[in-house]
Amino acid sequence: ADDFTTGYMQSKAMVSSDGTVFWPPPAKLRSSCKIDITYFPFDDQMCKMKFGSWIYDGFQVDVTNRSADVDLTNYVYSGEWDLLNIKVIRNEVRYTCCKEHYPDVTFTIVIRRRTLYYLFNIIFPCLWLTILSLLGFWLPPDSGEKITLGITVLLAFSVFMLLIAENMPATSEFVPLIGKLITTPFLLFLLLQVLLHILTLLV
């Protein structure tokens, strides 16, 4: 995550007569999230943001949520993600070393990737390239267009692999199905081309 000190803006804290302090600082917060890209780009992601004190216990600083719901009046809709759900839960953590409890408020955010961009720029072209690779087997072996089509399809598959790699987070925990969809025809097409070339030389 970025340096949290750069995201805050100047704001005043409201102190009540009972000692309650309400401080609503406008801030831009960035947090890391574990991403499951198995079904990219048809994936849902769940991220959690936990707010609490690392130093003071619950008797000194009590962190509470004012409401179980989140006000989305000023929410700005994203062109890449749809906000499905936000859940707010207050937790109290106790450690074996201390008798005090440490409260925190955890926001669970569920988002879904919008797929229209990826359908027209990745999925549909990938399907067309797969069809073109299959059509290459119907061309006569001694035709010059067969070699040209095969090389063009191989180069196009390589470009699409680079395009997909740029749009996905770098993680080795999950293998996206779309990567398998592109890599498998790529390898099969290359293997069949080599086998057909060997058979034509033998015949």
From TrEMBL:
Where does this protein come from, organism-wise?
A: Octopus bimaculoides
Q: What is its main location?
A: membrane
Protein family per UniProt: Belongs to the ligand-gated ion channel (TC 1.A.9) family.
MF terms from GO for this chain are: extracellular ligand-gated monoatomic ion channel activity; transmembrane signaling receptor activity
The chain positions of domain Neurotransmitter-gated ion-channel transmembrane read: 122-189
Record-annotated Neurotransmitter-gated ion-channel ligand-binding domain positions: 9-115
* Gene3D superfamilies hit by this protein: Neurotransmitter-gated ion-channel ligand-binding domain, Neurotransmitter-gated ion-channel transmembrane domain
Q: What are the leading ranks of the lineage? A: Eukaryota, Metazoa, Spiralia, Lophotrochozoa, Mollusca
Q: Which GO terms describe its cellular component?
A: membrane
Q: Does the keyword Magnesium apply?
A: no
Q: Which UniProt keywords apply?
A: Ion channel, Ion transport, Membrane, Transmembrane, Transmembrane helix, Transport
State its location(s). Membrane
State the membrane topology.
Multi-pass membrane protein
Stretches that traverse the bilayer: 116-141, 147-165, 177-199
InterPro entries reported for this sequence: Neur_chan_lig-bd, Neur_chan_lig-bd_sf, Neur_channel, Neuro-gated_channel_TM_sf, Neuro_actylchol_rec, Neurotrans-gated_channel_TM, Neurotransmitter_ion_chnl_CS
This chain belongs to which protein, by name? Neurotransmitter-gated ion-channel ligand-binding domain-containing protein
- Keyword Transmembrane carried by entry: yes
